[in-house]
Design a protein that fits this description.
The structure is a homodimer. Chain A is α+β, with helices and mostly antiparallel strands. Chain A has 2 domains: about 280 residues, 3-Layer(aba) Sandwich (Aminopeptidase), CATH 3.40.630.10; about 120 residues, Alpha-Beta Plaits. In chain A, about 35% of the residues lie in helices and about 20% in strands. Chain A contains 13 helices and 18 strands. In chain A, helix 11 crosses helix 13. In chain A, about 55% of the residues are buried. The interface between A and B is large, with 100 and 100 residues.
Amino acid sequence: MQNISAYIEKNKVRFIDELFELLRIPSVSSKNEHKEDMYRACDFLKKSLLDAGAENAEVISTEGHPVVYAEKIIDPSLPSVMVYGHYDVQPPEPLDLWKSPPFEPEIREDRIWGRGADDDKGQLFMHVKAFEFMNRTDSLPCNVKFMIEGEEEIGSPSLGKFCMENKDKLHCDVILVSDTSMIARDVPSITTGLRGLSYFEVEVAGPGRDLHSGLFGGAVVNPVNVLAKMIASLTDDNNRITIPGFYDDVLEVSPREREEMAKAPFNIDNYKKEIEVDELDGESGYSTMERTGIRPSLDVNGIWGGYTGEGAKTILPAKAYAKISIRLVPNQSSKKTDELFIRHFKSIAPPGVRVSANVLHGGEGYVSPVDHPAYLAASRAYETSFGKKPIPFRSGGSIPIISLFEKVLGVKSILMGFGLESDAIHSPNENYPLWNFYKGIETITYFYREYMKGDN
Amino acid sequence: MQNISAYIEKNKVRFIDELFELLRIPSVSSKNEHKEDMYRACDFLKKSLLDAGAENAEVISTEGHPVVYAEKIIDPSLPSVMVYGHYDVQPPEPLDLWKSPPFEPEIREDRIWGRGADDDKGQLFMHVKAFEFMNRTDSLPCNVKFMIEGEEEIGSPSLGKFCMENKDKLHCDVILVSDTSMIARDVPSITTGLRGLSYFEVEVAGPGRDLHSGLFGGAVVNPVNVLAKMIASLTDDNNRITIPGFYDDVLEVSPREREEMAKAPFNIDNYKKEIEVDELDGESGYSTMERTGIRPSLDVNGIWGGYTGEGAKTILPAKAYAKISIRLVPNQSSKKTDELFIRHFKSIAPPGVRVSANVLHGGEGYVSPVDHPAYLAASRAYETSFGKKPIPFRSGGSIPIISLFEKVLGVKSILMGFGLESDAIHSPNENYPLWNFYKGIETITYFYREYMKGDN
């Protein structure tokens, strides 16, 4: 195998140029105005994969945004690895907080800045470049498939059907995903758990129009005051979720496993400093890592209602809205949670308002086994490139499609994410360090070698 | 005295044309972008008052928006009536709910539609036209002054100083104000009480940037969840305000006075229908009219934080904001309430967030005596024009400057408002019935006659 480090060094300017071309496409899946941009991103990836050595690549329509599929079958009797990624990105708002425009990528402080730099354009592009290297150096040891979707950030509504309809085409032995983070640059880790998600938009409607808050205040039920009370009541003083039945399917992690988890390096002062908070808080009786790794949580993602402009406007608002999401642990059902939440939320509405609650998206959690041959191969690959064994790690995030892959395709996914917490994914000033980008390409090529070599 | 009804009939097209000219000026006091419009409104009013017969009229600068002052002194030994009104209007947002553009007034269903149609351009213009009638028919029985400000909707921050600096000029025996509503078209009423106001903007700041709600949810204090809990805790299950010391200065109204108040005609079904709610709720132990008339209240006027766009965005917001206002009853101090609220609101902030609270505006409540000669004159004027005695009525709204007039100028104000609850002031589709506009002009001219005639 020709030296991957040398290959990266020689081609890195081109790699970045190509990635920048992809980052410039504002492929925001949640907004209809970007429909054309989704196709532009697909066409770019299709061409990239063909250039990198795919035998064929296609853009396949779905009921939502299209999927890019590509493959190179060197020998049908050899194992197949499928790479999953997504070309869609989160909305860039609030725009005024970006130091450089979200869709005009640039390099500063050895990082790539722009929406999608990490999540997931930057990370999926590492796979395209690792694939290119193996093709150009005739070192591809197995069959490779790529499935890149455009709806991950909105809950992958079309990909389940796509997988069911294309089971044969998508047949593979393992799925590789780079869409998660490492504990730290010098603490490589592989994500072995993900949380599920139930995401709602709720509306509390009161009077038929905004009323004068002087003439009516005190006599008419105020939808914002009500929404505040309803949200407040969803968690108790111990930060436990109060929805009846919510914890029924939550599996308590054994004391022994929690002890093991506690050994992972974690510096709480750095964590607080990184996100600029003085104090942390969460469910009583659990550590910070446990609160995101093995426990469910409930967050308001957005709230709005009434007058939000400059100065004072004395109205009693007609309506109030919130986006509320619940993170679930493996074994909790997203669908059951949807039903529990909606029933409960409506039940706590006081007289004088009309309440609606709708599911925006959701998905199940996932646990990956640490004795799977592909996990072990990934572990050895990290050891080669980072010089140390990666730590298995349960993330608080959700990639709902991963549990669906297991259900529909019967295949486990290995979450080789190379992001960092400081990458600010989903936030203004998303970025991805060049070092991680190149290290990811390197580690991925080692994975293929280790996976085909087997554990001996 | 020539017949006012005939005069109105003859001139009503011109009256409306002139009022529309004023309504077309978007004199929104809370937004800096309308600075020029404030001067345009002043110039229009100055010209209108001179045309109507004022001896002199001027636009006087303040630290904020200018004041229009005009006068006609027919005999320094006669009493002087001062008309107070305001040419500024509430912001028109949300624009998409208006059936016709807010600053393009039009007549439909015998009503004038547009921002300011009632509050207060339409109502103050009745005084200009009543003044015009008396001048043109040589029937003005006393001296008249006009003081029209441009900051009422933002709490009149400059008018107190203006009054103090112009005490001599503003010397008068009574102040007439049309900036309130009647109980109903066929139930004339005079507002004898107003509530005070303390209006705040609060900010709850958590992490230094929006975080991924999966990676951090459950471990990091969410400012929106916190703000909801803080707002929820400001009122208890009986809808009483929980701020320590808040009720100390609230005077309980005697059972006898409450019995008298309960005699005012009030149809709760019509009230609910008018504002499109099924149920009303408020402080336990008080009726709907009492809840707005003689009891304080706390309302969120606006709330915002996190992602409020289309679809789902899984962020844990960095900040959350709310506009919160408290209506006060006479004898409560707005300044003391400001201090109580800010101290309390900061004290209930949990660890992990930084809370700030700032006063946006405020003012004291007011009670007007029903045995004042000007009240009695107004009462007789209504009896003449409406054919029935008006009901003294305590409104829930606030005109903070009224209590200041009493303090600085030592003069009582008579609140001859001709609006209706259905006028949707401060809301989209503000309107003012033509009938009320003309009836107001008529009643105002009778007031002058009755006031000079005295009670005999």
